[in-house]
Specification:
Radius of gyration: 20 Å
Number of strands: 9
Strand content: 5-15%
Strand order of the largest sheet: 1-2-3-5-4
Shape: globular
Number of helices: 11
Structural class: alpha+beta
Largest sheet: 5 strands, antiparallel
């Protein structure tokens, strides 16, 4: 599909669901294949999510074995949702049912990869937390937001339309290996065969110590994916790659954020 065809399909989708009179204002792109636009003039604050299926590798089928996943590449090894819109919509509905503020889905076309979702505004926790007093309050709030997720045990496929999977060893190792594939390659540090053997042995030993995966891991839980709503409550976005894993994962992701430095004393306390 050409860019022109995609724009035509987008316009048709908006018209079908009564948003044809809105002004579409594109938002800054992130690292994913999805893009977002604010729909000005909508009956309620709304965003258009554009998730074209052809722009990303397919997700990992629940029945795929390790050899198949390795053959399919990173998305399948790490068990990412890839371009699948139903992962976002199913998780948004489930999170809302747990009392976590996630965007409502006003309209969707799974096959074409379009959705109109609730717009929580542009106040990211990362921005509001520049004030040190606010930082402490907001980070405590963000940890408390995880509490209902950490207290609910899940089994694979509990989300119904989306086959929720576990954060298994291959998925964990695939993400750890980004250090080798990207960082070391970027700084020009070669890795010997012996060093690689030590690397995998070290991770394997740590994976052996993990408890069984049993709670939802949002997986990308950091200060730029948490929005501060007008009423001061927090909302989550960018959770479509969630898996069943260990309860500590999201807390560490928040406090050891690679994108901003949390005050060390506060991080230790939390």
């Amino acid at each position: 599909m050409t860019d022109q065809d995609r724009e035509a399909a987008k316009a048709a989708f908006l018209k079908t669901h009564g948003f044809e009179r809105t002004v579409v204002r594109p938002l800054a792109a992130d690292a994913s294949s999805r893009s977002y636009a604010r729909l000005e003039g909508a009956p309620h604050p709304a965003l258009l999510m554009d998730a074209p299926l052809q722009k990303e590798a397919p997700p990992c089928p629940p029945t795929a074995d390790e050899a198949t996943r390795r053959g399919w590449g990173y998305n399948a090894m790490a068990r990412l949702a890839g371009p699948r819109l139903e992962a976002f919509t199913a998780l948004a509905q489930w999170l809302s049912a747990q009392g976590v503020s996630a965007p409502k889905v006003y309209a969707e076309d799974i096959d074409q990869g379009f959705a109109v979702i609730e717009d929580f505004g542009q106040r990211h926790l990362a921005d509001v937390a520049q004030d040190k007093a606010q930082e402490a309050v907001l980070y405590r709030q963000a940890l408390l937001l995880l509490r209902p997720l950490q207290q609910k045990a899940l089994s694979a496929h509990d989300l119904g339309p989306w086959p929720l999977q576990t954060y298994d060893r291959l998925a964990l190792q695939a993400e750890a290996d980004l250090f080798l594939d990207w960082y070391l390659a970027d700084v020009g540090v070669p890795l010997t065969d012996n060093a690689k053997t030590d690397w995998y042995a070290a991770w394997s030993g740590m994976f052996d110590k993990l408890s069984p995966p049993q709670t939802l891991v949002l997986r990308d839980y950091h200060a730029q994916n948490i929005l501060v709503k007008e009423d001061g409550q927090l909302a989550v976005i960018d959770f479509q790659d969630a898996l069943i894993g260990q309860a500590a994962y999201d807390a560490v992701s928040l406090l050891e954020d690679a994108r901003r430095d949390v005050d060390p004393a506060l991080a230790d306390e939390l």
